[in-house]
Amino acid sequence: xxxxxxxxxxxxxxxxxxxxxxxxxxxxxxxxxxxxxxxxxxxxxxxxxxxxxxxxxxxxxxxxxxxxxxxxxxxxxxxxxxxxxxxxxxxxxxxxxxxxxxxxxxxxxxxxxxxxxxxxxxxxxxxxxxxxxxxxxxxxxxxxxxxxxxxxxxxxxxxxxxxxxxxxxxxxxxxxxxxxxxxx
Length: 184
Hints:
184 residues, 2 domains, 7 helices, Alpha-Beta Plaits
């Protein structure tokens, strides 16, 4: 059965608190197998016979909206995709070595040429961006609190929902849940 990682947007922010045990039960109620959570920031690992990730995202979003009472945008990647994302080098090594943080935005679809121009417009002396596939990589050269960039700013500029994770979280996820079967 394919293994997936669901990256949930804003699951434990803005006054909302969801216990990971409750979140696992909601995913199990959807019929998913081997459900686990990884840190309390909305990373859910599960297996499903379905290979239609868009349909899985919609099912999860509908379930979470009904159970929690608010929208939880969901971004699913396969274990193979998470490995690729963890290993991808969006910036030269010297830039990464000097950065304070590297974060990855998960999107529903690649941003396209217009989106790349908009993304370029968000670049500052502190913030650098790179897009690849359905992810945007944000390199922050200073403390993130010194940056004017935010998820909300990103979503307004891109006119699209997204959720960000630190690169270290993605690397740890890829190490803990390595892809075992060839992608189909």
